[in-house]
Design a protein that fits this description.
Elements (H helix, E strand, L loop, with lengths): L2 H19 L1 H7 L2 E6 L7 H15 L3 E6 L4 H13 L4 E5 L4 H10 L4 E5 L9 E4 L4 H14 L4 E6 L4 H17 L4 E6 L6 H13 L4 E4 L4 H8 L2 E6 L10 E7 L2 H13 L18 E3 L11 H15 L18
Parallel strand pairs: 1-2, 1-3, 3-4, 4-5, 6-7, 6-8, 8-9, 9-10
Antiparallel strand pairs: 10-11
Helix pairs in contact: 6-7, 6-11, 8-9
Length: 333
């Protein structure tokens, strides 16, 4: 028997199989090439949540994932272009200091999907934005804080006074005021996304003025609270395991709903510019209040009941936490 007819029969069979399953099936099985660009270290709390969600997708075998940390603003555009030129189909990151340059790159690569942390609007056809809209659990953590302060003085140390930070602080303050109308606030910004020593010093200064509970929007604040025997409320991630006698509660951000949605849409060829902010809300499991853990028996029962009731009202759509992007001000005298 000739080998040529055999090869022809094999090719015919292969062609028939491909025709049966369709061209999209092979693409669906291929791993999506995803890249991320971060201006801070992977361990920084905000970035760590994006990185965690992408690593989970990588572990499931859905994507090939590459990321670069500590990218200076001056290098951001170059790295972004390199990832796009290398054929990455989805690129994520935070562009708060490099907005114009990032949007220019997106225009130059219209077939690449971009999902970027930004305070601004999406840019058609391929530049989606996201934000950590976790004001709901921040408010719930404030309810806890109001019931835990003894001096009625709470300190808040933030990175920069931008909407992403302001709205969480304002929600936290509103919650604390609800359970403790007497509370006064000291507010400070360190003008850095990652400078634990500077945040720690700002916290020490507040403690010296009578603050006994601190909102740890940045790393370093909980260290100061621990050293001085004070309490802290966490933000974005749960650090209670590292500070079991210090961190009472934390507002957690879960980036998985946003990341998984983007991956699915790119794979289906349906990706479009949109605002992913809503997928960070509690309704979509994009945020939650961490379990009280080591403080479960230390938080007053009436406060715990209040938190659970409000949590249910939020999830049922019966209570809305206000989004206030204005810079919070100190009220302490």
């Amino acid at each position: 028997m000739s080998l040529v007819p055999m090869k022809r029969r094999q090719l015919v069979a292969l062609a028939a199989t491909l025709a049966l399953i369709g061209p999209g099936a092979a693409l669906a099985q291929a791993k999506l090439k995803v890249a991320a660009i971060y201006t801070v270290p992977f361990e920084q709390q905000w970035v760590s949540r994006i990185h965690k969600a992408l690593k989970a997708a990588e572990a499931r075998g859905e994507i090939e994932y590459k990321a670069t940390e500590n990218v200076a603003n001056a290098d951001y555009e170059r790295v972004m272009r390199e990832y796009a030129t290398a054929g990455n189909q989805l690129i994520l990151g935070e562009v708060f200091g490099v907005e114009a340059a990032a949007r220019k790159v997106a225009k130059d690569f219209p077939k690449t999907a971009f999902v970027m942390g930004s305070s601004n609007k999406p840019q058609a056809p391929n530049f989606s934005v996201f934000d950590n809209f976790i004001q709901e659990p921040a408010y719930l953590s404030g309810l806890v804080a109001g019931g835990m302060t003894k001096s009625n003085k709470i300190g808040l140390v933030g990175g920069f006074p931008i909407p992403e930070v302001n709205r969480l602080m304002n929600a936290f303050m509103a919650g604390a005021k609800e359970t403790n109308p007497k509370v006064e606030f000291s507010v400070s910004f360190i003008n850095s996304w990652f400078d634990p020593p500077k945040a720690k010093e700002a916290a020490f200064a507040m403690i010296d003025k009578g603050v006994d509970l601190l909102y740890a929007e940045r790393f370093g604040v909980s260290d100061a609270a621990k050293e001085k025997g004070k309490l802290a409320i966490g933000n974005v991630i749960n650090t209670q395991a590292q500070y079991p006698d210090t961190v009472v509660a934390s507002a957690l951000w879960n980036m998985e709903p946003s990341v998984d949605r983007a991956i699915k849409l790119v794979k289906e060829g349906k990706f479009a510019a949109e605002d992913y902010g809503i997928y960070s809300t509690m309704k979509y499991k994009g945020s939650e209040l961490a379990p009280l853990g080591t403080f479960e028996k230390k938080v007053p029962a009436e406060i715990v009941a209040k938190v659970k009731a409000r949590e249910k009202e939020i999830l049922d759509g019966k209570f809305t936490v206000a989004v206030d992007d204005n810079q919070p001000k100190s009220t302490a005298k």
